[in-house]
Amino acid sequence: MSEQLLLGIDIGGTKTAVAAVRHDGTVVALRSAPSGRGGAQVVDVAVRLAREVADAVSGLGRISAAGACMPGLVDPRTGLVRHAVNLDVESLELSSELSRALGLRVEVENDVKAAALGAHHLGPRGWGLHPDVTSAASGTGETAYGSGDVGTLAYLNLGTGLASAVVRGGVLVRGIDGAAGEIGHLPVGGDVVCSCGQVGCLETIASGSALARLWPPSRGGGRDPFAAAAAGDAAAAAAVDVLCDGVGLAIQLLVLAAGAEHVVIGGGLTGLGEPFVEGVRADLRRRGRSSRMIAALDLESRFELVPASVPVAAIGAALLPGRAPGPFLLTDELAG
Ligand SMILES: [Zn+2]
């Protein structure tokens, strides 16, 4: 019998990934390609991959609903995306463009928020059961992930920048203009001017751009900083200390301010792997040593990395249709 499948489109800063997903989050097909640049190309790449995925699963079922996510200010109600700077998109009617091309309504969301939904749905630690999606990437092999009630979950994205999103009781916390979770732009000290215009934002110590500034190619950077630090490179060691301190601070912030029971870390910096996890654990232990209150929170046990093979944002995007986008509080409504 033909089943109904969901389509999830994740338009990232470098790569676009499209997955066909069952309602329980099981990935049945996955395709990816470099993202386009500019609105028209961004949509073209997404539509091409979406058609490939639909073809790949045509023997299994039909796509009954679709969702898409991308960086920038994404309004799920109007379907409009603004300021996706890394994709050369100033303004894009993402929902209507994709809906028209694919012939079905496409819900949209910010990529970090979609990834938080995906991580919440899969459940932290559940994906360890079936982390390999290579069969799904090459055909229509199935990949199942764990699922369950995980309480309040924060997703921390460490890419070029730092952003987070919180899912509480199964609902995305949005805040004013979707700004809830933009903890990368909390000033925490230092004198580095942030891309947002403030000075000393968390993003200036805990992100890919921070690492590139702290340990630039001119001083031997551009390689694995943990390996270089272990081999005795003092500049690399100083850079990873700052990075791990910043990520530890981000985790502490998400637990204390957002009530996160789990912090799931995704994004490009997760490629640093186990030494990075160990560095962050060491920082969290250090925080616990100076405070019994912090030690009692057991921050060390609350975070983990998303395995690189799990397309968490595409899965989250696929789950957008049919769910409430979360409470809105928009500045234009406050003004009006
Ligand atoms: Zn900032």
TrEMBL record:
The keyword Kinase applies. The keyword Kinase applies. GO terms for molecular function: kinase activity. Coiled coil: none annotated. Keywords: Kinase, Transferase. Pfam families: ROK. Belongs to the ROK (NagC/XylR) family. This is Putative NBD/HSP70 family sugar kinase. It comes from Humibacillus xanthopallidus. The lineage of its organism: Bacteria, Bacillati, Actinomycetota, Actinomycetes, Micrococcales.
